Amino acid sequence: MGTAAQAVAYERKGDIAVLKAQNPPVNALGQAVRQGLIEGIAKAEDEGAKAVLIYGDGTTYFAGADIREFGKPPLEPYLPDVCNRIEASPLIVVSAMHGTALGGGLEIALSTHYRIAVPKARMGLPEVHLGLIPGAAGTQRLPRLIGVEKALDIMTTGRQIGAEEALSLGVIDRVTEGTPEEIGLAYAEELIASNAPRRPVSEMPAPEPIDWDATYEAVLKRGRGQISPAMCVRAVQGACELPFDEGVANERRIFRELMETDQRQGMIHAFFAERAVGKLPELKGVEPRPLAAIAVIGGGTMGSGIATSALMAGLSVTMLEMSPEAAAKAKDRIAGNLSGALKRGKIDQAGFDRLTEQALTLTTSYDDLGQADLVIEAVYEEMEVKKEVFRKLDAVAMPGAVLATNTSYLDVNEIAAVTARPEDVLGLHFFSPAHVMKLLEIVVADRTAPEVLATGFALGKRMGKVSVRAGVCDGFIGNRILSHYRSAADHMILDGASPYQIDAALEAFGFAMGPYAVADLAGLDIGWAVRKRRRAEGLDPRARDSTYADRLCEAGHFGQKTGKGYYDYAAGAKARVPNPEVEPLIEADRAAQGITPRAFTDDEIVRRYMAAMVNEAARVVGEGIARRPLDVDVTLLYGYGFPRYRGGPLKWADMEGLPGLLEDIRGYARQDDYFWQPAPLLEKLVAEGKTFEDLNKEAAG
Question: Stretch 554-579: mean pLDDT, rounded?
Fold first, then answer.
């Protein structure tokens, strides 16, 4: 990063001292930048300047803390001291903001006396996403400026706000077109000329209080047990009830306490895992193939979602359906998805019209797919159906086109083998709804060419997905692990738990939804089809099986889409109540298998469920289906509702302690030594005194 003078350039422009941050690419607030700001303020005062302008060189104001300093001992000057020093200056200090001012970046701006921004600037306090609260008096200054409720909305969600919203809230004073230096100098000159006063936020009156306990409970509930947003409430409470200096000390105490929590560890792990997941040694120096036009085969919910995502990413899309009627329905689905983007302001009406009328083409003929750079099939999850599609594709796709299957479970090698170009075939497993869900599993078959894999990652990046490399097996990473921990839940039901107790226990653990509520949402017919396929292939005689879910499906209860599944949705999707038909089916199943039910505690439910998840995840890593433990963590975080503040199942396992988990699994094996066979990798790690994180570090070199 260089010296403080290099990190923050100092220049006099008349009465104004200009401090220009130059720490590319995002002007992160590393030690040299912090030092440079303090030295720059002192120099401006010594030289007799009347005002100071602070702005960032390049594409942004200060975008936040320097992630290279995460996990290392903090270096002086600390950010809170830098903010206090800026605010205490007798000169008028102005921030000119462009790009993003996030976290510590916005806290620097709040410590200056006036704030101006370009229209495209964005700002926010996203510390809750790292399991923390703002730690440089953001919880004390922002509420004084804009009031408690508006400040808490920004802090507890961690959301970014645009310049116009920031202006209307009172976070900034002005929005003007121009370069940050131009608009900042003009504003500072105007303030000097009008003899404007210094305006330290810390000297503004304390904000009006609210019902602190009720707000704390509501925020804790909304965060599904994540504590950092709720602790923002307690820090802001200090801004109302304590003098500024004591409020700052209270904020620092809460910040330090959160630094020591498992939740903070989990969220930092998730933050870095998401950044590491697409960095694969096998793709170093490998160029992806060109990507401008794609084709999607099958316009159901999944295919329409994929097409929507591609259109939003600026790709032209040809959608193939079996009949003109089906094609018209597919177009309606895509238009419906895009109208959601229109409502949210992601696109304007002209953009909507262009995407639906120009960028999207509907066809019923394979011959129209010959110009696509990449073709994704999203047809029925049946091997013979998919093979037939790939035979047709092989005949019409242009040389070098990437041929992708959106299968959730099926063998991509078997699909690739029906083409004359298996090197061009890979799996792109999107999650439904594909234009909303961020996870994309990129499945590498035995003969997939490196540049085809690189093209899959390029597509994922362009669509804004979090892409994970997976090997070929039944279910790849996510669905393979899912089928295992779902089986553990099903076994607990046979042994005496109820679907409703299991859902409640796992939602209390932090899952967005329990497994039976999720099954209702996805459609019970999906699991039914998988069970029938596996039984047809031949179940191991030692495997436990159950019939209660099949009976539900046979009665036409497929979950939310039919109004009933494990739950009854007569009062709407959110007003789920247990379906009274389910318990008698479970009891009949137990009786037929001669099982005497027993009670389960919520803790025992969570422990068994998580042990099954970790054990199968360890197999997936041990077999190389996932290259690193972090690939599993990212898959479960982004595709399966795993609570982010726990970091992912393998990070959770590290924090819980692998020896204790292995001991539990061996204990469960005494009742069922077929399902609960300890994963060899888990046994190896425990024997060597290692963790999953050690494997992540080894993979990173």
Answer: 92
